[in-house]
Design a protein that fits this description.
Blueprint lengths: L1 H16 L11 H15 L6 E2 L2 E2 L6 H11 L6 H24 L2 H12 L2 H6 L6 H17 L5 H14 L2 H16 L11 H24 L1 H18 L9 H9 L4 H13 L5 H19 L12 H18 L5 H26 L9 H7 L9 H22 L3 H31 L2 H10 L6 E5 L12 H4 L12 E2 L3 H9 L4 E6 L12 E8 L2 E7 L3
Helix pairs in contact: 1-4, 2-3, 3-4, 4-5, 4-7, 5-15, 5-19, 7-8, 7-9, 8-9, 8-10, 9-14, 10-11, 13-14, 13-15, 14-15, 16-18, 16-19, 17-19, 18-19
């Protein structure tokens, strides 16, 4: 078992880290989080997360501590992506342990393969955001509850760590799993540790309480009010960002559970029909559905927010495939047909990538930067890697379809997971590598440092507004340029008067601004330099020198 866990962790880490060098950090979240980690590592202030010198009140500090520790040992800005990748690999290990607890080693390996190759988990495991780390701790918490015995301590520890990553979801997801278990009648595999609710609550609350108490002593009650009242609870009841209708996840979740969703549907039907005979599968179904309802009730919605439910989906799909396609005396006909059809669809996708790589135009994306990134990949020789990946994906899918037709369904599912892995790596090494030139702030930051090197003048950012102010691009606070500049901090310019005063001061001055955000008339001697585009914003430099 321990050998399986080590091998699975190494395989997961290799999968998520494979394309680490293919791109820089992208605006806005990766660069923002990397800048917070950089300030921690370089200033030694590990208590209060800061960005551009001001308290960053959006999130608790645990993810930033991990990324800052990686920065300190030389990983640098990519530490946020490494942290996410390692958390993704850790989640696969915890998920496999949960599958072995109830089902089998075969189900454990299959569940890990399904989770790793679902689009959202596979993508965010390569991205420097908080959601995969949150998923690791919520999954660890659920495992601890159902494992029982001394391992129930993991339930409380997981909640405490998850809250220190992202706040309320760290409590919500484990409690949904507990409720799902109660509804399904799932008992722990061994007796509970004695008096665990008494000491367990202390374990869950202590990390956040200790940090928050020290933070209050340094930053005052306003910091806690902003963090808890606005950015945690406020996003739940009346979010000012990502506000979506109640049914948002019913549509978006479907796409993000492909290609495994068609197999999860019969697995869910089976779990409901056999809820008395196999309560563990019913618990997974309830966990997934109750979680979707709970997250749908929250006003702010992004697909990444429901990532902690993906382990329940992967376990449900894996167990359903095992029961319907392998353990049954004869594979369930409709599920076996779905398995074959899925391979055919994936083979078609591979053929599409092959044709793109060979130069056959299939579709022109609406987004300009996507089209620009794809253009060099449409046709040989630039499209050779894409064509090769498409050919490999199609070949794996055809082989998987043949295995499924011969009732070798586990091998066929393995081929499907391998095809999805090839798809991820193909996107990483082709489109993502090309899109880096449009999404990375590094070229702008390096050009800025060449014009005004540290010690050779001052750099400001305009307009600098409080974080998350509605309708304003937060360049000073997003950290897009702090992460890659030789400077740690820039001068925030909050209004036109401050901008003009800064440019009129003696010495070499440069202001970084976004075109279209309302620049005032510039005084004589100040000129504009086009710096390039970062994501959707055209960046300009305002300089008072030739």
């Amino acid at each position: 078992m321990r050998t399986d866990a080590i091998l699975l962790f190494l395989a997961g880490a290799a999968f998520f880290l494979a394309a680490l060098a293919s791109r820089d950090l992208w605006q806005p979240l990766e660069t923002r989080y990397a800048t917070v980690a950089r300030e921690m590592a370089e200033t030694g202030d590990w208590l209060i997360p800061r960005i551009n010198g001001e308290p960053y009140q959006d999130k608790p500090p645990l993810f930033f501590w991990i990324a800052a520790a990686l920065w300190k040992i030389g990983v640098g800005p990519q530490g946020v992506r490494v942290a996410s990748a390692l958390a993704g690999a850790g989640t696969l290990v915890v998920l496999a342990a949960m599958a072995r607890l109830w089902f089998s080693r075969r189900a454990a390996i299959l569940a890990a393969a399904i989770l790793a190759t679902t689009p959202e988990f596979g993508w965010l495991g390569r991205f420097g955001e908080l959601d995969v780390t949150l998923t690791l701790f919520t999954t660890l918490s659920a495992y601890g509850w159902f494992a029982g015995g001394r391992r129930v301590a993991l339930f409380y520890l997981g909640i405490g760590l998850a809250v220190m990553v992202k706040g309320p979801p760290g409590v919500l997801v484990p409690l949904v799993a507990v409720v799902a278990g109660r509804l399904a009648g799932v008992a722990p595999s061994s007796p509970r540790a004695p008096l665990h609710p008494l000491w367990g609550v202390v374990v869950a609350v202590l990390p956040a309480a200790l940090w928050l108490g020290l933070a209050l002593l340094e930053a005052g009650s306003g910091y806690a009010n902003e963090l808890i009242g606005k950015h945690m609870l406020g996003r739940v009841v009346d979010s000012w960002q990502h506000k979506q209708p109640f049914y948002f996840y019913l549509n978006e979740a479907l796409w993000n559970f492909l290609p495994w969703l068609p197999l999860a549907v019969p697995a869910g039907i089976r779990a409901w029909r056999r809820r008395r005979d196999e309560p563990m599968s019913a618990m997974l179904l309830f966990w997934l559905l109750l979680g979707l309802v709970a997250f749908s009730a929250v006003s702010g919605k992004r697909i990444a927010y429901i990532l902690p439910l993906a382990p329940a989906f992967a376990l449900l799909a894996a167990r359903g495939c095992e029961a319907l396609l392998v353990e049954a005396e004869r594979p369930e006909r409709r599920t076996a047909t779905v398995h074959v059809v899925m391979h055919i669809v994936l083979a078609g996708t591979g053929i599409g990538l092959l044709l793109l790589g060979l130069g056959v135009p299939l579709h022109t994306p609406r987004k300009e930067y996507v089209a620009e990134a794809l253009r060099p990949l449409l046709g040989l020789p630039g499209g050779a890697p894409l064509a090769g990946a498409g050919l490999l994906l199609a070949g794996l899918s055809v082989a998987g379809a043949r295995l499924a037709r011969r009732r070798r369904h586990i091998a066929g599912l393995g081929a499907m997971a391998a095809a999805m892995a090839v798809g991820f790596l193909a996107v990483d090494l082709t489109f993502v590598a090309r899109a880096n030139g449009f999404a990375s702030p590094r070229p702008v930051a390096e050009q800025m440092d060449r014009l005004v090197p540290p010690g050779g003048g001052e750099v400001g950012i305009y307009p600098a507004r409080p974080p998350a102010e509605k309708g304003v691009e937060q360049y000073a606070y997003s950290g897009a340029f702090n992460a890659y500049s030789a400077r740690l901090r820039f001068e925030p310019l909050r209004d036109e008067e401050g901008l003009l005063r800064f440019l009129g001061a003696p010495g070499r001055r440069l202001v970084l601004a976004a075109r279209g955000l309302g620049l005032p008339p510039l005084p004589p001697g100040v000129r504009t330099i086009d710096a390039g585009r970062v994501d959707r914003a055209e960046i300009v430099f305002l300089v008072n020198f030739e």
